[in-house]
Design goal:
The chain is an alpha+beta fold. The chain is elongated, with a radius of gyration of 36 Å. Strands 1-17-15-6-13-12 form a six-stranded antiparallel sheet. It has 18 helices and 21 strands. A hairpin with a 2-residue loop joins strand 20 and strand 21.
Amino acid sequence: MNDLTYQKKCKTRAKREEHILDDLEFFPDHNAKGPSPLDPAVANVWMRPISNRYVDGFDLELSARFGVECVLLQDEKQAIRVSVGVKKALIELHFKNCQPRQISTETGGTTYRRTETKGIERATTSGTRTRLGGEARVAPATPEVPITASGTLEGGFSRQTDNGTSYRNQVSRTWSAEWERAGPTSIMIGSGDTALMGQAVDSVRGWRVTIDTTQPFCGVMASLTTRAEWLDFGRIEVEGLSAALARKVKDATRNKRSRDRELFELLLKTLAEKGLRAQSQRDAMLAADVQVLRRNDRQDELGKSLPVNVPPSSPLRSIPVNMGLVEEFLDLDASKKVAFLEHQGAPFEEIQRITQMYHSTEPTVAGRLFNAGSAPPTAKEALELSRKGPMSTADWDSQNKNRSRTDLVALGLIAVVDGMVVSLVPKDVSSEDALRHAAAKAPTLIVTREILLRAPQASGVEIAEEIASRFARKYNTHASKLRVGNALRRWAIWLEPHLADPTGGSGAARLRISAKSERPGVGAPTLASPETVARLQTALNEGLRGRAAAKAAGVSRSTLYNWADQGIVNVPNKIQRKKKK
């Protein structure tokens, strides 16, 4: 064979292979189905391959949507209906017989602005126009707080006149979403604070996929998974339970914010995660989507078996749960429930968060807020008294005529069990160290510290108003705000004396002295100042009735009569308080 003949054969073979490649194409296989979702109203994910000719590759578009819906947690005999949402989720892409390439690096935590120039035209004096073309530019904008499904649209049209007029039409778009990339083929959605709502991922074209043309098919699977601590449970209904178990569930969930309820919800989330967990995964799968492309030259042979062997089915809308574990948990004492959750594999961080938030062994006082009703030395003496042994609440109140019991219960240093006050401080820990450590972790004092670091001269009223705003408290009067704010400030300065501004003059010095004082009785100044007593006595001598005289002196009617009983003021007989028979 001479060289000329060999070259002709090579050209003929190349043309034949080129013709075969031109005829080769991949088509979507609509018979391939993914695993059944829990409920599309709770979480759903879907993809869309975009291409005019799949054999040349395609762009992969991803979307995800979330909501809140009721789902059954059930076994063969009983069921609980729970309102389920998702606070955080992970979408992972799995590729078969194809190679992905990331084509977009945008994230939901960054806001991007796109400026598009629709076209530039130049008009001559004769009125003829010549199209010069268009341009598009993408530049990152200043990062903003991520929000779901947000955006702005701006338009404009500029004109410049000389020998020729230039026209420029610009449109600016700004968007952001609550998601970020967790890897080359994965996306993390949500911050874990609140339940996701609406379309969190909206048609994100993030990957260019190249098909291996030597294989008969290629496939992409998107799995949307979550974890127990990322689930958000709301309303709990007990219609499907036995009467005894329904009563126990109602007792555990009676209060919206309590230690028992949060521990019970954590148990349900842990069992739900186990029920949704696939055999090869550690997280709970909520939804999945599969896209399969088949080569056109072997349709008959490939039709005998599917690359994804999962039969199509409807949404589950229920999660298999062992209700025996639920009943066993509700029968346990409060002190044993944490160990039970740890044995079931509940997230340690969630257990720690709940136990720190409700730092008390008594369920009825869980979640009580520390309001600094007593001074630090008073609370210290009361704590030392409680460590001598259990005592009844009546004996406690007779020996501590103050609000120290409420404060110490809120700090988790004592508990009331069957009418007895019990110390929770270990014997080898000093009372002052225990008090300082517990107070430093109190949410109200943490906020007070932040306020004083930001504004050392902040008044008691300003402190109380921010506490009320942060913790949904309501202080009706100016006096209540002043009392609560000053008390919290005193505790904060007792913990950290440097919080009082040393350049603040005599006022700051007085705060430091008051905070360091070891006299338990130090508190708000008495209303019975010489000026107030003189005004009140003058009003009484002038013949004003009790209520009118008290109002003129700026005190309450009950204060007037209390002062009369103590001999501070003299009340005429005709307006003496009538004593009950």
